[in-house]
Design goal:
single chain, 79 residues
Length: 79
């Protein structure tokens, strides 16, 4: 459909770019345009635990956004 939005029969893929603000803006736009039953978020993130292995997949329980030391969004549990 566009260079950043791909639409298949059963799956749509949106590439948002870097950062939480870019992702939030683009995802909100597409959530309003289509009737999605499920959203899968794939991305890269940092971790504070030295036991986390690089190159592996990890289940995420909560997400936080901190900018300049201040919490921007409340955390929310992921199913």
């Amino acid at each position: 459909v566009t260079p950043h939005f791909f639409k298949g029969e059963k799956l749509h893929c949106l590439i948002t770019g870097e950062g939480p603000f870019e992702a939030a803006t683009k995802v909100a736009e597409f959530l309003g345009k289509y009737d999605y039953q499920e959203v899968i978020n794939l991305g890269l993130a940092g971790g504070l635990d030295a036991k986390v292995e690089l190159g592996c997949l990890h289940a995420i329980r909560s997400v936080y956004l901190i900018v300049d030391g201040k919490l921007q969004f409340k955390s929310f549990s992921l199913g």
